[in-house]
Amino acid sequence: VYQEALSSQFGKADYAYDDRYLLSATVRRDGSSRFGPESRWGVFPAFSAGWRLSGENFLKGLSWIDNLMLRGSYGILGNQLNVDPTNAFNQYGGGAGNAYYDINGTSSSAVQGFIATRIGNKKTHWERDKVTSFGLDGTFFKSQVDFSLEYYTKSIDGLLFVDQSPATVGGAALPAINIGDIENKGFDFSTTYHGTVASDFKYDLGVNVGTYKSNITNIPGGSFTSGGSRIGDFVRNEVGHPIGAFYGYKVERLFRDAADVTASPTQDAAAPGRFKYQDTNGDGEITADDRAFFGDPNPDFTYGVNLGASFRGIDFSAFLYGSQGNEAINYFRYWTDFYPSFQGAKSEDLLFNSWSSSNLNAKTPIAENASNFSNNSVPNSYYLEDASFLKLRSLIVGY
Description:
mainly beta
């Protein structure tokens, strides 16, 4: 049982001159009980400025411009959400199975003991998200069209992530620590058209598109892995690569036959119908050094479509959201596409379209009850899938 608290103070100042030049500044100071006494408080300023171009004489003659504003901002946000409320403290516990001991030397006098259940870290501090943006907002043609365009950069200093200490520290839960820095940058664009067909029939059509590029700029040790599974970690976070990138052996194809195995780089458990991995470093042998980045969970862009209409007493609205270019690991294939993983339900691909001497161009490995380096024992690109999607998030019809 625990209690947690958040204490905040903030101040804000705004200035406007002739409704054309706008300035704003905010400073807030936050303290969270999730951090230790040495690093509990953080100060987070933010500044913004706007220039209403449509108020200037050189644009007043353009009647089709209702409003046009150029803006910029810089701010620092504090994040504490990825920290357990007891993160700063060493904790102990245990039960009869792991912390009781017959210290008196008899078989019926087990004495309660304790083991470390969590390793605390009092130096964990606020994650600082620094955001810089520049944008242009406008409304045109007597409010028929509005749009917004923004370029932004977001750098995360002191990324909060669970410590990656080796197993030699013991079985206690590891604390969240400030493990590295990340930089994201991209564009956001949105526009809406408000149309009128008749006095009792109106409609709206809106589109928004967003892009961002993720890049890890600093990590102690240069990298760490995560996304564990029975066969190892699929994710490697490394300086110079996007957050959450997929890492492992790249599958070129399946070995076609014995001659193909002989002509290929040396690979443990290589056989017809099993994975042929890419010799990334070109040394003629498949080893751990040939692992490489093979996928990215971050999308190329996301987009949305807003639809709305009203006719007399009837109104309609819909919102569609999509993500394009993002990839995912389908770990279910470990269970459905390999017999030694699980003896139960299997995929149709394994049952009817796996490799055989009469199906040399198959995409699914040979159906066999063997587990090894060349089929289901290591993370590889066989599990990678396109995760792009378009979904209808909301549909409302009213009367």
